[in-house]
Amino acid sequence: FKLPSDSFKYFGWCDIHDHDVRGNQLHCPRVREGPSEEELFFRREEHTLKKRKQVTDREKWRKKLQENWENCAELNLSFQDLGDLYQVENFKRILRRLIRVEKLWLVDNSLTDLSAIRLPRCRELNVSKNHFTSFKQLPKIPQIQHLSLAENNIMTLSGISDFRHTPLESLILKRNPCEFQERYRQDVFSSLPNLKMLDGIPKLPEDCSPPDIRFFFRMCTIL
């Protein structure tokens, strides 16, 4: 038997009337949009359309003000289950509005490319368990201090030097293919001289070997 709330199961909080909760008051909002009308008919769930109505420009503006993403300082948008392209586009629409966010979690969202997104005030970003393959696919984060990229598919350290001119202090690259390349830690700290911690381990003396020693390690002496 269907519950009375079944017809609202694909609604966002902005679609529910008689409340004034704004986006910057929520730390873990569900922002994934529901299926399209065609998909609902295919699923035989057209009964969920009964509560829907034509959205006017005034209601769109009311929703924009209620979402209030521009004033979010700390936000968790993890585990959104973005199964359809239009859901991904709506997700990116929200990210583009996060002009004041300082701490942002986007864990396990099957994300592949956020290079068109800019987060000008973001100091802490967690994009673990996604599908990034390159540092070039990350959003623009000029003020980043703590970045977690664990469990992605980053093959090489190419592009990591783009963070050289940021205040990045802590970087997590655990469970990425690049973690297994030779001299992994030395190459990361060489590219990011201001970095203090990699994969939860502070910078060690052996992580910043002088150039002549590094050259010596590459030589092979035959006796």
DSSP strand (E) fraction? Answer: 5-15%
Poorly predicted segments: 212-216
Described by strand count, sense and barrel closure, the largest sheet is: 7 strands, mixed
Q: Tell me, what's the shape?
A: elongated
Helices, by number, come to: 5
Mean pLDDT: 85
Instruction: Please provide the count of β strands.
Output: 7
Return the string of H and E elements.
HHEHEEEEHEEH
Distance between the amino and carboxyl termini: 82 Å
- The radius of gyration computed from the alpha-carbon positions, rounded to a whole number of angstroms, is 22 Å
Protein name: Protein tilB
Keywords: Leucine-rich repeat, Repeat
Organism: Antrostomus carolinensis
Note down, in words, how this protein is organized.
With 223 residues, the protein is an alpha/beta fold. The protein has a domain at 26-35 and 71-204: Alpha-Beta Horseshoe (Leucine-rich repeat, LRR (right-handed beta-alpha superhelix)), CATH 3.80.10.10. Helix content is 20%, strand content 9%. A seven-stranded mixed beta sheet has the order 1-2-3-4-5-6-7, with helices on one face. The longest helix has 12 residues, at 85-96. The radius of gyration is 22 Å and the shape is elongated. The chain starts with 36 loop residues before the first helix and ends in a 5-residue tail after the last helix. Residues 212-216 have low confidence and may be disordered.
Detail the topology: elements first, then pairings.
Blueprint: H1 37-42, H2 57-67, E1 74-76, H3 85-96, E2 103-105, E3 124-126, E4 146-148, E5 170-172, H4 184-191, E6 197-198, E7 201-202, H5 211-218
Parallel strand pairs: 1-2, 2-3, 3-4, 4-5, 5-6
Antiparallel strand pairs: 6-7
Protein name: Protein tilB
Organism: Antrostomus carolinensis (Chuck-will's-widow)
Keywords: Leucine-rich repeat, Repeat
